[in-house]
């Protein structure tokens, strides 16, 4: 089973600052498992040293769109989209300008109330893939 983790909301930072949150350091002489390695903030927030860039989708635009429009990018069933929309309604999220999702069946987010790059964690959901 594959699982997609979704974060969305309104991010007020500039695009460069928003994207720096996900920036992996490939220009270092230090290995990722070395305590000297500087992990990106996303990695720190999900409690890992690195992440697979092929498994993440990151979106930030300069205007607000509906949650439904943002979620069109997520590979989940219609039933799961309804579940996600229900969570958004419960959290008071109607419009967003930023979203990211990460596909990883083993990822466990323990601090679900934390803001990740200014965005709300909605949960992990079964994917269509």
From TrEMBL:
This is Immunity 22 family protein. InterPro entries: Imm22 (IPR025560). It holds the Pfam family DUF4284. It comes from Lysinibacillus xylanilyticus.
């Amino acid at each position: 089973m594959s699982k997609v983790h979704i974060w969305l909301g309104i991010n007020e930072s500039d695009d460069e600052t928003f994207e720096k949150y996900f920036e992996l350091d490939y220009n270092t002489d230090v290995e990722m498992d070395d305590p000297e390695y500087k992990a990106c903030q996303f990695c720190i927030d999900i409690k890992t040293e690195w992440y697979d860039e092929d498994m993440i989708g990151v979106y930030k635009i300069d205007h607000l769109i509906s949650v439904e429009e943002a979620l069109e990018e997520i590979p989940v069933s219609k039933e799961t989209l309804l579940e996600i929309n229900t969570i958004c309604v419960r959290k008071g999220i109607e419009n967003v300008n930023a979203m990211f999702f990460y596909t990883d069946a083993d990822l466990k987010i323990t601090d679900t109330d934390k803001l990740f790059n200014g965005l709300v964690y909605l949960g992990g959901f079964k994917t269509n893939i």
